[in-house]
Design brief:
The protein is an alpha/beta fold. It has a single domain, classed as 5'-nuclease (Rossmann fold). It is built from eight helices and five strands; from the N terminus they run βααβααβααβαβα. β4, α7 and β5 form a beta-alpha-beta unit. The protein is globular and about 40 Å long. 36% of the residues are buried. The mean pLDDT is 93.
Length: 158
């Protein structure tokens, strides 16, 4: 079975600190265990995730870095090609300019030819309309389609 090259965005790590939705915390913890299964997944994060984590309060930042280290992700980096793709998502108003980092997460995963993006961001990423629009741009520019799902779908609750 082919290993899925899996991009994990910052919202997944941040969900571990959700004080309002214990179920989401539980799902995210289970998801973290699944990402350690190197026979099924190649977990990846990007410099965008690292930048966002650096903005967290010190105690949370340290804990997040340890949790990330536990899944041993491959770190991928933005390049000029990613910037061009980000601008296309913004220009077509798929992602609002105010949420540019969401477009950055998507673009870096697409340009690096990953299979799937895992996010808790259902407003701008993991919903059917956004996925169709994102993949429409990707196809029109010669990129592969990418699947965008929540951790629930990865652990089998979706």
């Amino acid at each position: 079975m082919k290993k899925l090259k899996t991009y994990i965005d910052t919202s997944v790590f941040g969900a571990l600190y959700d004080i309002e939705d214990k179920y989401r915390v539980e799902i995210t913890q289970q998801f973290s265990m699944i990402m350690k299964q190197k026979d099924k997944f190649i977990p990846c994060i990007s410099n965008v995730v690292i930048e966002e984590i650096e903005k967290a309060p010190l105690t949370i930042k340290r804990d997040l870095k340890n949790k990330i280290k536990n899944i041993e992700p491959t770190i991928i980096y933005e390049n000029e090609e990613c910037t061009i793709l980000v601008e296309e998502y913004l220009k077509r108003k798929i992602i609002p300019r105010k949420y540019r980092d969401n477009a950055r997460h998507i673009a870096v995963a697409v340009v690096h030819n990953l299979d799937i993006i895992i996010t808790w961001n259902c407003r701008h990423m993991a919903n059917i309309e956004k996925k169709r629009q994102i993949n429409g741009v990707n196809i029109s520019l010669g990129y592969n389609q990418i699947d965008i799902v929540t951790p629930m779908e990865v652990i089998g609750y979706g």
